[in-house]
Amino acid sequence: MPRSYITKAGDRWDWISYQFYGTCNLYKEIQKANPDLPIEIIASPILPAGIELVIPDVEKPNTVKELPPWKR
Questions:
Q1: Which secondary-structure segment (H or E) carries 52?
Q2: Taking residues 7-34, what's their average pLDDT?
Q3: φ and ψ at 61, to 5 degrees?
Q4: What is the rounded end-to-end Cα distance, in angstroms, of the chain?
Q5: Where are the domains of the chain?
């Protein structure tokens, strides 16, 4: 179930991604979940305070590297 987040002064896309997903790399998923935001906000790395963002549920990438078949 998607959550919401109200931005604070100085918030960045990557920081919000890290807070919710444990990785900075999923910020584009948050941007996609908020298509009604003006392009100026989407394109800016630093967000203004007071914006309500939808934080979607995403499948986190598996960070555990699988061993190749010859090492199992």
A1: strand 52-55
A2: 95
A3: -65, 145
A4: 37
A5: 3-71
